[in-house]
Amino acid sequence: MNTPLAQIGVCAGGEFACVKVQGRANFTSSIDFNTVLIHLREQGCSHFVIELSECALMDSTFLGVLTGFGLKMTQANGAQATRPVELRNPNARITELLENLGVLHLFTTATGNVELPEKLECAPQATAEHSREEVTRSCLEAHETLMGLNPGNAARFKDVAKFLAEELARMKGEKLK
Q1: Which residues contact 147 (CB under 8 A, 6 or more apart)?
Q2: Domain 7-128 classified CATH 3.30.750.24?
Q3: What is the pLDDT of residue 116?
């Protein structure tokens, strides 16, 4: 059974944003996901709900991008007691992956419908074409984030990160020729 690639939809207004991830969230959709989150943050959003009821799975790159954003938002939130990124309706596998990677503490989790504030603009997000170099860089950064947050992840991802770093260096070398 092939699970469709992730589709990303956004409802945002004021300081609130709900980003719905549907399908298979992997390295190909992680760049668009990150771009959406950065744009919303730049527009003044400070509370994010990532709605995952229709997200079948996340690969390590997508998990790393999500984790990196959760870390940035938690650091920006400072001493406030609440975490600014909520994962709504994550399935047991996604929750288990985040827990095993040692990063679940960056998020709040909840189940049920998202209560959307009034005056929100909602729209699906278009996916963009990304170069092999952009994808490789994004994958490397995501895995470095996971390794940096939990030393136990280094054993899991050191070979992947090494391969990605070498591949990125090779691509840059080809550009210089």
Answers
A1: 153, 154, 157, 158, 161
A2: yes
A3: 72
Residue carrying structure tokens 């960056």: 106
The label of the residue with tokens 């509370």 reads 47
Parallel, antiparallel, or unpaired for β 16-25 and 7-13?
antiparallel
Per residue in 121-159, pLDDT (tens digit) is: 666 666 778 889 999 999 999 999 999 999 999 999 999
User: Structure pTM?
Assistant: 0.88
CB 56 within 8 A of CB 24: yes
Report the run of H or E that residue 33 belongs to, with start and end: helix 27-42
What's the rounded Cα separation, in Å, for the pair 177 and 169?
13
Long-range contacts of 37-43 (CB under 8 A, 24+ apart): 37/69, 40/10, 40/12, 41/73, 43/12
Contact by Cβ (8 Å): 143, 60: yes
Joined tokens for residue 127: 């996916």
